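Slide 14.
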Amino acid sequence: MSLSDIQSRLNTAANDAGRDPASIELIAVSKVQPNERVASVLGEGHRIFGENKVQEAQGKWPRFKETYTAVDLHLIGPLQSNKTRAAMELFDVIHSVDRPKLATSLARIAQEIGTCPDLFIQVNTGEEEQKAGCLPLEADGFIQDCRVMDLPVKGLMCIPPADETPSLHFALLAKIAERNGLSGLSMGMSSDFEQAIAFGATHIRVGSAIFGDRVYS
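Slide 15: predicted structure.
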């Protein structure tokens, strides 16, 4: 696979769903990828990237942002409250807002610095104990609480359980978003992004299918 292969599949899935491919952002997930691979994808002109950890991103992206213009950096992994400020200073979008304590921290720091990244609320659609995200039954209330704090909530994010049909979870996320007037849907990864597009995904998160297998130190 390659960036061009994934973009081609995105275009086909969008056309099959009667959607404009330009309405779907392809987030190239560069976590634990060697810098030379990231530089290669940047060199192809791609500018939307995703990272799982604040600390790893801090060691990689300030230098890349100096070299390449208009990079759009997304945090797609869990965010610890003590890393909130660092995340807000580095990332353009945070996809993993999942609990009141984090929302309060985001709102407080946004007041201090006068700006806030775009935010997605993570919903634990499979209600898995080991996974981050608010529960589906709590999502409406949490979305409202974030709006009261003037947080720029743009949409919802989910990671379906590995052993369940992802389309059921994509449909659930889309339903929650629709009833709350949210247009952003961050859903779909390397193995299922075409299904996610059929259910309205606006942001798909693809890593190894673009970069190759991850390189863990």
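Speaker note: The first strand starts at residue 25 and ends at 29.
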